[in-house]
């Protein structure tokens, strides 16, 4: 496990400490970044740092289940804010990673399983933070920025898909629409839950100096939710347009096959009758002209005239 310690308000570089005991003797206020794939060791560190058991047990519950949801938990002077943040918004397929922030009177602890996710937050913490709550504001801003960045890329992807759906609807378009829709649903679910968390947290810090800054973040979150709803409506319209285009394409295919079948039906009838190999010398009702030297040519000309006549008739009717 990696424990990164930053003494807030002091021009001291972040330092990696060996164990939680070294944090206790550090100058306050202090910010801790805990990164570990093993949740059990993180809960041990939180217990040593004096974090309330209710918050520790909440983090343990997250480690036992794969399902994540934004959460606000208050225990005495400590508050836990859990959210999801996009680790890398350069691709529409990037996953969202949980991040937990525990705010206390003289300390703030950020827990995550991804070290790359915390690199930008650590840099901003060194330059901008002097109080524990400042770090929570930075994490929330980074979460909102990641949502907006990913949403912008999804909207660009939707614009590209609009042209594809109209020009060449196919399975690849449907697969890309499915991916974009899943990503939008995930962000929408996370943002709606985070909205409830922000409401509870604003009540918790109603008389704090950071209340106005957190209120601005909440307004940005509401704008993000509105943008998500608009994008979801566009995806729904594209899916309907895809189904309409697919049905038109299927109709055109069936129309083409029907015309081909209509042309070949009389030809197959003629071939079937001519292949009976009847002889008019045996019976007058048998097929005549079997011994005629130009019979094949006449039959082909008759078949060609039938094809040309049917094509002209279909064109006159406006079917082709």
What does this structure look like?
The chain is α+β, with helices and mostly antiparallel strands and 320 residues long. It has one domain: Beta Polymerase, domain 2 (2-Layer Sandwich). It contains eight helices and seven strands. A hairpin with a 7-residue loop joins strand 1 and strand 2. The mean pLDDT is 79.
Q: What's the structural blueprint in terms of helices and strands?
A:
Layout (H helix, E strand, L loop, with lengths): L1 E6 L7 E3 L3 H4 L5 E6 L3 H10 L4 H12 L6 E5 L2 E9 L9 E8 L3 E6 L2 H14 L3 H36 L3 H34 L6 H64 L20 H23 L3
Parallel strand pairs: 3-7
Antiparallel strand pairs: 1-2, 1-3, 4-5, 5-6, 6-7
Helix pairs in contact: 2-3, 4-5, 5-6, 5-7, 6-7, 7-8
Keywords for this structure?
alpha+beta, 320 residues, Beta Polymerase, domain 2, rod-shaped, 7 strands
Helix-strand topology string: EEHEHHEEEEHHHHH
Average pLDDT, rounded to a whole number, is: 79
CATH superfamily: CorA soluble domain-like
* CATH architecture call: 2-Layer Sandwich
Rounded to the nearest angstrom, the distance between the terminal CA atoms is 71 Å
Number of strands: 7
Strand order of the largest sheet: 2-1-3-7-6-5-4
* Major sheet description: 7 strands, mixed
Which CATH C-level class is it?
Alpha Beta
Multimeric organization: single chain
Q: Percent of residues in helical segments?
A: 55-70%
Globular, elongated, flat, extended or rod-shaped: what is the shape? rod-shaped
- Any idea of the CATH topology? Beta Polymerase, domain 2
User: How many structural domains are formed by the residues?
Assistant: 1
């Amino acid at each position: 496990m990696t424990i990164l310690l930053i003494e807030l308000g002091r021009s001291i570089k972040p330092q990696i400490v060996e164990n939680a005991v070294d944090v206790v003797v550090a100058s306050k206020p202090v910010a801790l970044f805990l990164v570990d794939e093993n949740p059990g060791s993180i809960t041990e560190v939180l217990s040593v740092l004096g974090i309330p058991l209710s918050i520790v047990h909440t983090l343990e519950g997250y480690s036992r289940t794969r399902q994540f949801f934004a959460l606000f938990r208050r225990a005495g002077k400590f508050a836990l804010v859990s959210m999801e943040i996009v680790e890398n918004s350069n691709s529409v397929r990037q996953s969202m990673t949980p991040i937990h922030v525990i705010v206390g009177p003289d300390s703030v602890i950020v827990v995550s399983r991804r070290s790359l996710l915390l690199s930008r937050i650590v840099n901003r913490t060194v330059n901008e933070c002097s109080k524990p709550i400042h770090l929570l504001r930075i994490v929330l801003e980074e979460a909102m920025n990641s949502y907006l960045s990913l949403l912008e890329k999804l909207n660009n992807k939707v614009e590209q898909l609009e042209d594809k759906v109209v020009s060449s609807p196919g399975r690849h378009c449907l697969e890309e629409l499915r991916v974009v829709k899943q990503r939008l649903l995930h962000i929408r679910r996370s943002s709606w839950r985070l909205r409830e968390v922000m409401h509870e947290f604003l009540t918790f810090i109603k008389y704090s100096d950071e209340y106005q800054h957190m209120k601005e973040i909440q307004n940005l979150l509401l704008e993000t939710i509105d943008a998500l709803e608009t994008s979801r409506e566009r995806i729904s319209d594209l899916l309907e347009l895809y189904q309409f285009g697919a049905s038109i394409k299927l109709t055109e295919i069936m129309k083409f096959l029907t015309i081909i079948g209509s042309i070949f039906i009389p030809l197959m009838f003629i071939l079937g009758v001519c292949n009976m190999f009847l002889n008019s010398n045996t019976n007058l009702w048998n097929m005549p002209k079997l011994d005629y030297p130009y019979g094949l040519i006449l039959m082909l000309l008759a078949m060609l005239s039938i094809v040309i006549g049917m094509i002209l008739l279909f064109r006159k009717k406006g079917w082709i």
